[in-house]
Specification:
Blueprint: H1 11-21, E1 23-30, E2 33-40, E3 42-43, E4 49-55, E5 69-81, E6 98-113, H2 116-131, H3 145-153, E7 155-170, H4 177-188, H5 192-202
Antiparallel strand pairs: 1-2, 1-5, 3-4, 4-7, 5-6, 6-7
Length: 205
């Protein structure tokens, strides 16, 4: 990922992007070309691993072997920026459209898991993370045991040993302050995606 210094974030912020996104695209190289799958992920407390699972019916995992490289892509915010949002264009009309976004990529090595207990723990972790704060919280352990085992049999566990992480927050930092404020204010009155970007722009130092 190309990250100019103005748009770079530190590792802590990059991991927060992963957590905010919640799910991402895992990309692998196969004999037939690149292949991707979109899955929710859990970040380990030490940030050394990502875990997930996918349906066995999905052919993505069938060409993977332990140690294969994977690129995990996460997008936490994204919106189109119109040149009409730039007050500075009235004096300097040389402006073009662009895109503001907050993203991270994780490089790692894959491992697959078929062990029932591993898969059960992973599914528990996923639901606990995304059910947290709901009332009531849905729990894996509330499922009928026979049904739960059938569902676990139908999935494959994924573990990624993290090699590196890189984050990027492209939020109009390269524009004059008046343009940054204008973009943020336009987004604040826009779509859900635009409001998400506006919120992130408002937290810039």
């Amino acid at each position: 990922m190309y990250v100019p210094p103005k748009h770079a974030v530190d590792d802590d912020a990059a991991w927060m992007i992963v957590r905010d996104a919640g799910a991402g695209a895992l990309v692998i190289a196969t004999p037939q070309g690149l292949a991707s799958v979109f899955v929710p992920v859990i970040v380990s407390n030490d940030r050394r691993t990502l875990t997930s699972h996918l349906a066995k019916a999905n052919p993505w995992w069938k060409t993977v072997k332990t140690g294969d490289e994977v690129l995990a892509l996460f997008l936490a915010a994204s919106a189109y920026v119109s040149p009409s949002y730039y007050p500075s264009r009235l004096e300097n009309p040389g402006v073009v459209p662009t895109w503001n976004y907050v993203a991270a990529e994780v490089r790692g090595r894959l491992r697959l898991h078929e062990e029932p207990e591993w898969k059960l723990n992973q599914v528990r972790a996923v639901t606990q993370q995304f059910e947290r704060g709901r009332d009531p919280e849905w729990r894996v352990d509330d499922l009928d045991e026979k049904y739960r085992q059938g569902q676990l049999t139908a999935v494959v566990g994924i573990e990624i040993d993290v090699v590196s992480i890189e984050g990027k927050a492209k939020l109009s930092q390269n524009r004059p302050e008046e343009d940054q404020i204008s973009v943020r204010d336009h987004f604040a009155e826009g779509t859900l995606s635009e409001r998400n970007v506006a919120l992130r722009m408002s937290t810039l130092e």
